[in-house]
Amino acid sequence: MEQQNKPGERRLETQLIRTRAHPTRHREQVTPIYMASGFTFDNAEQARAVYSGEQLGYVYTRWDNPNNDELITRLCALEGAEAGLPMASGMAAIFTVLAGLLNSGDHVLASRSLFGATHQVLTTILPRWGISHTYADTELTSTWADLFRPETRLCLVETPSNPGLTLIDLAWIAGLCQERGVLLVVDNTFATPILQRPLAFGADLVVHSTTKFLDGQGRTIGGALLGDRLLVNELTQFARQTGPTLSPFNSWLLSQALETLPLRMERHCANALALAEWLQGQPGVRSVCYPFLPSHPQHDLARRQMAAGGGIVAFEVAGGLPAGRRVLDGLKMCDIVANLGDARTTVTHPASTTHSALTDGERRAVGITPGLIRVSVGLEHIDDIKADLAQALINHG
Ligand code: PLP
After folding, report:
1. Whose CA is nearest to atom 7 of ligand 1?
2. Using an 8 Å Cβ cutoff, are 223 and 89 in contact?
3. Which CATH class is domain 12-258?
4. Is ligand 1 within 6 A of the CB of residue 116?
5. Could you state, in order of their start, the residue ranges of all structural domains in the chain?
C-alpha cells in the first residue's frame, strides 16, 4: 500500500511496532497486561477530576484501559482514523454503530451481501425499534441512488463481501452519501487496512471483526470502530453505558498481532492468488472467485481500490451441497472452521454454517450456492495447501 508520510513521521510498519500508549514502569520490552477492573486515585478531588474528564487518567476498564489505548492508537494509525474504540467482537462494533447512532424512524441503506449476523441485526432486531432498511444489489449500482429515502441516515457496506467477494466502489458510494448527508459505514474486515482504507475514500466510520486477519492466529474474539472523532465520541458515551468492551488481555494480544500484520497480509495475498489461479484448472471446480483474478467481474475496480486481492478465495464445486461437503470431509491438513483470517488455512461451507440462517433465496441472491466453498488461505507453504485441496477434490469431489 502506498504510504504518504508527513516529514519526520515514521512509516506505518514502524509505527505498528514502536507505538506505545505509555512508557513501561519497569522497562519491560513488551507492554504489560493491565488486568485491573478499576484504577486508584490519590484523593477525592483527583477522583472527581478524572471521573469528569477534566484530568486525564483511567477510571474503570469498561470505560478505558492502557492496553485498549495502545491497541486503538495502532488501529488508528492503520486506518488513518482520528479516533476509535476497541470492542468485544466485530458484531459488538457493528451493533454499537447502529444502535448508538440511529433513532426510531431512521432508515438504513445496506449492500445485500453482508455477514450473516449483520443481516440478522438489520432484519430481526432493529425493526423492533422502528428502524427499517433496504438492501441494494451490488451488481445493480444504477439503482442505488433511487433507494435513498428522506429518513435514510446511514449506509452500511461490506467490500469485499463475505463470502461472495463482491466489491463496492468506495469513492462512488462515499460521493452518493455525501451529497445526501448520509453516514457511510464500511465493514473492512476482509480487506484489512493494509489493502484498503475506506476513510481515505470518504467513509465516516470503519468497523472490523479483529477476530480475523488483525489477530491472525485464531486466539481472540474482538472488534473495533474507527473514524470521525465526533462520531466516535458519541459512540464512546453509548459504549460506556452499554458495556461491549474488549478485555485488556485480548487488547494486549491484538496489539502485538498488529506488529506482523503487513508481513502476514503480503503472504496471505500471495498464497491466495496462487491458489485461485491453480484452482481454475482443477477437476470438479466449476468456478473460482478472487478479486485479483481477471475473471472476477469487478477485477478493474479491485485493482483500483485494493493493494492486493486479500486472503479469501471462494470456489464452486460441481455436484452441489453433497459434493461441497465431501470435499471438506476429504481434507487432511486444512481445518474446517467457521472462522477466517488465521495463519492456518481454514475451509468453510457457508450454506450449512455461517450463512445457514438465511433462506435459500437470500443465499442465492448473494451468490452463496450449495456447492460454494470458502477458503481462508493461510501462511503454510502454498505447495502443501494445494496438495491437500488436490487430494480432497480428486478423492471426494
Ligand atoms: N463482519 C464480517 C465481514 C465478518 O466476517 C464477521 C465474522 O465472521 C463479523 C463481521 C463478525 O465478527 P465477530 O465474529 O468478531 O463478532
Report:
1. 209
2. yes
3. alpha beta
4. no
5. 12-258, 262-396
Residue 60 banded pLDDT, cuts 50, 70, 90? very high
pLDDT in tens, 244-271: 999 999 999 999 999 999 999 999 999 9
Q: What is the distance in A from the centroid of ligand 1 to the CA of 58? A: 29
Q: Which atom of ligand 1 is nearest to the CA of 211?
A: 15
Is the CB of 209 inside a 6 Å radius of any atom of ligand 1?
yes
333 Cα to the center of ligand 1, angstroms: 24
Give the residue among 14, 13, 30, 12 at the shortest CA–CA distance from 22: 30
Q: Find all residues with CB under 8 Å of 346, minimum gap 6, and list them.
A: 218, 334, 335, 336, 337, 339, 340, 375, 376, 378
To test the pocket of ligand 1, the residue of 212, 215, 221, 337 to mutate (highest count of ligand atoms within 8 Å of its CB) is 212
Q: Which CATH code for domain 262-396?
A: 3.90.1150.10
Specify the pTM.
Answer: 0.94
